[in-house]
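Sequence in, structure out.
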Amino acid sequence: MSRTARAFWLSEPGSGEIRSADLSDPGPGEVLVRALVSGVSRGTETLVFRGGVPESQYDVMRAPFQEGDFPGPVKYGYLSVGVVEAGPEDLRGRTVFCLHPHQTSYVVPAEAVAVVPDEVPARRAVLAGALETAVNALWDARPLVGDRAAVVGAGMVGLCAARLLATFPGVEVTVVDVDAARAETAEALGARFALPAQAPRDLDLVVHASGTGAGLQTSLDLLAADATVTDLSWYGDAPVELSLGGRFHSARLGVQASQVGEVAAARRGRRTRAERLALALRLLADPAYDALLTGESAFDELPEVLGKLATASIPAICHTIEYPGRLAGGEA
């Protein structure tokens, strides 16, 4: 028996639409998931929306269940939470997280979903992808007890990293951003806040997540001697210019890349991606992360909403998309 679902597609840069998608019954080892809520990864998805993925990165940037190709038409996204409607008995009825585009229902291999702990609300669970990225970043950055740290860039991933750092014993973490309105959110996560000009210097550790060259330069400027910036930003097709004169060489400063596609080298071989995602979902039992959920819209509004997020006419950290009710007949 076939079912019809609905999915968001980027038809061309700057323009999206809802399309139908035919689903077959799940086969052995597969699950049918009815979406409850999805999250918009503002940095990456708005870059995709405006057509900013460099051609050289088309393969690297593919999402796990992406259809189509960059720059479009393409079905893209990776923060979906839903309920398993059919599949293995131990998963039926469970709330799960999946790296799937925005779609009302979908069939995927059972190993592609991760069970959301009972104490984690579905809407908060959409942050699992961002928190998994932050976990990987801290495995790369290796914070120590009592470190003085900063996170430059108060987006979804940066703020997840700030919350994790704030839970380390003795660590003082400052969120640095050009938007003073992010101060309240930083404080709700247990961090201090500063504009770039007022940020503390001589820091042991800086995580950069602003997605801008200016933010990376600020991150370098905040470091103590022999310290390193852990850079999570994805710049797309935007060039990045840095001033590497001054104290960059004399203070032996460093920049290291951190990217969630692979488990951080410090844990590679001892942790799988599935274990890393399960850890992120457990950490989301912390209600402080609700501070990152800043708005919600209905699924049918997604083409318009993504356009507004891309132009920043909707101020958002994590904007969530709410889905219609349970499958009825053949329509999702």
